[in-house]
Amino acid sequence: MRPQKIAVVGGGPGGLYAAALLKRLDPDREITVWERNAPHDTFGFGVVLSDETLGGIEHADPVVYAALRDEFVRWDDIDIVHRGVRHTSGGHGFAALGRRRLLEILQGRCRQLGVELRFRTEAPPAAELSAAHDLVIAADGVRSRTRETYADAFRPHIEEHRNRYIWLAADFAFDAFRFEIAETEHGVMQLHGYPFSDHESTVIVEMREEVWRAAGFDDMDVRESVERSAKIFTDALGGRGLKSNNSSWLTFRTVVNDRWSHGNRVLIGDAAHTAHFSIGSGTKLAVEDALALAACLHEHPTTGAALKAYEAERRPVVASTQRAARASLEWFEELGRYLDQPPRQFAFNLLTRSRRVTHDNLRLRDARFTESVEREFGCPEGTPPMFTPFALRGLRLRNRVVVSPMDMYSAVDGVPGDFHLVHLGARALGGAGLVMTEMVCVSPRGRITPGCAGLYTPEQAAAWRRIVEFVHTRAPGTAIGVQLGHSGRKGSTRLMWEGIDEPLPDPDDNWPLVAASPIPYKPGVSQTPSELTAAQLEEIREEFVSAAWRAARAGFDLLELHCAHGYLLSGFLSPLTNRRTDAYGGSLEGRLKFPLEVFDAVRGVWPDDRPMTVRISATDWAQGGTGAEDAVAFARAFAAHGADAIDVSTGQVVAEERPAYGRSYQVPYADRIRGEAGIPVISVGAISSWDDVNSLVLAGRTDLCALARPHLYDPNWTLHAAAEQGYTGPGVVWPEPYRAGSRRPQTGRSDDPRPRLVLPG
Fold first, then answer.
1. Which residues are CB-neighbours of 52 under 8 A, at least 6 positions away?
2. CA distances from 449 to 486, 542, 569, 641 (A)
3. Which domain of life does this protein belong to (predicted)?
4. CA atoms within 13 A on the CB side of 335
């Protein structure tokens, strides 16, 4: 049955709004809110809510919406001030009000509906509350006692981040959402400011921990910190002061829970999840949690079913927001990396940092600003960033799109056949600037599966020459590159669709494996490889050289050395797979030794005017494995040996990895390598739209974008991207036989989604 006696722990916006909605849905409910602080005690000053959230409130409780509507301050602009230059982008649509006023409105609505509010009162112990109530809503914040009490059930994961920040306020209203950067003798500091009334603004001052300490903030009391912050940002504040409200220097905590409910207890808001303040979603998420929870309790006949539905509905939304918040948080942690970007590109980079704002919707919001960024970047008029050319050594790519290497497992005795001709030829006709082969193996024992392509026989070389000639003849202007690799300990397995990473079913068909160290990929499942001897290392190096020589004669425009995904060369780079005690193991320099020897040998036979790239796994996604700092070191080493770009992937090195998947999730590693190693990068990893490509390239986070699955879905992905953007310039060319299809087909209408919860006024 539906809960009638409800306890709410925590009198913040989420808890109060949940109480009001549930009482409104059923006036006979007995609902009590416990809040240990006084009614007007709160941290911070202003809160920001989106139009989407306000729309949900309007449909669910018009009374609350009307009160909020009368209080909100609205504005459209974002100002970014860096090195004395201000750039303004408009059309963003913010709404904010004071946190204290928001609480007053929600408290008043709860009293009006008959919710019992108990301030300055600690909630009874969690077990006692659960026994006495049908439902306990834990809205008790980032340090939730309810969550801590039942940690074994909720299984929280809490991560402390590197920056220090403090919530302050100013006695005047900014006329825009303002970001200001201060480069001090101690390091970089930033101000986030926005109005929340016609005479007040929230001001957040943020900086890296080491900058905070170097500036002496760790030895200051709050008053001194406030005065010092006002002096640092005197231009932004117009010489006016700042004030505090229960303010202190904090480090942000990201909260994630494996479960949001346990028995008749449920977490909402910061107790369940947090999102960094730089995307302004904390209060928004809490209010939306309350809306969804009330709706699910109204729609389902039992509390258990309702709590299950609530979590199923909200978890994907929250996960998406948390990914965006992490991207934003990390951008501000690494702010110093971008300070030397051209001013408008810096501003664009900041605006698109979370990937929630993109090139396309920023163009809709403020076309003039976006076009100014494009001009500064060098886009010809009417040319999206993705269709600007890019040069690698003697190769000029006509656009920034790469068809990522994708293993097809469709070769016979290593010979690519008609399938490869059609597969690669179709994607070359589809408009990409560069089409990459799958990993082409340098020896029979270097194959992953019996279906893998090779370049170790004349027959294979001739078959590849046929494909290269087709691309050059039928898709002029499209480059084709070959990726050379050796499977190492991940070889002798079934075709992907027959059992990925599983040994061949007939033991007699399996071939012996070699690797940096005798460690199986999947203990108890995979074959244990032999540790390579000095003679075998020399033999494999020569196999790479022979394959590269054949690739050059076949006419490939670019060669990529595969040092990622746990294959042979990647196995040397990772300390999890390289336990050698000779010169090829141990330190980072030792682990790099053999991959660099192979690179040098291949570069020696690869034509000077043709570029070479290297694919690496920038992190193993596993404790004790390689991480971002190692990736930068790898990139610097390969660059010093003549690599023209680094293709930045991640993972697939060890079976026990735990990747943090999400849209463009590998781009931050490429971004860091580009900024710190000073070498062009190719970004990969869930880049799925042309809008993503435009955004990443224009922001300066990558030089090229490699897409795999989108090109499986649509071989003409790049041509369609041009058509959808109305682009007809030289950055992409429709093949003559396809020109009749170059206009975007008409589509039907799509209706807006219905409101989540609609109650009568």
1. none
2. 11, 22, 17, 31
3. Bacteria
4. 24
For residue 681, the surrounding DSSP H or E stretch is: strand 681-683
* Cα–Cα distance for residue pair 191/203, rounded to 1 Å: 7
Cα(34)–Cα(39) distance, integer angstroms: 11
In the prediction, which pLDDT does 752 show? 62
Spatial distance between the Cα atoms of 559 and 544, rounded to a whole number of angstroms: 11
Can you read off the two tokens belonging to residue 638?
A: 């390969």
Entry field: residues in the chain: 761
Enter the tokens of residue 199. 């005479």
Indicate the residue type of 100: R
How far apart, in whole angstroms, are the C-alpha atoms of residue 437 and residue 485? 11
How far apart (Å, rounded) are the C-alpha atoms in residues 591 and 612? 21
Strand, coil or helix: what is 354? coil
Helix (H) or strand (E) holding 119: strand 116-119
This prediction's pTM: 0.90
Of 440, 429, 441, nearest to 403 by C-alpha is 429
At 474, give phi and psi (nearest 5°): -95, -15
> In angstroms, rounded to a whole number, what is the distance separating the alpha carbons of residues 202 and 169?
5
Catalytic residues, by residue number, are 567
Query: pLDDT, tens digit, for every residue of 220-256?
Result: 999 999 999 999 999 999 999 999 988 899 999 999 9
Pick the closest to residue 491 from 464, 470, 522 (CA basis). Answer: 522
Please give the Cα distance from 469 to 239 (Å, whole number).
68
What sign results for the dihedral spanned by CA atoms 690, 695, 696, 698? Answer: positive
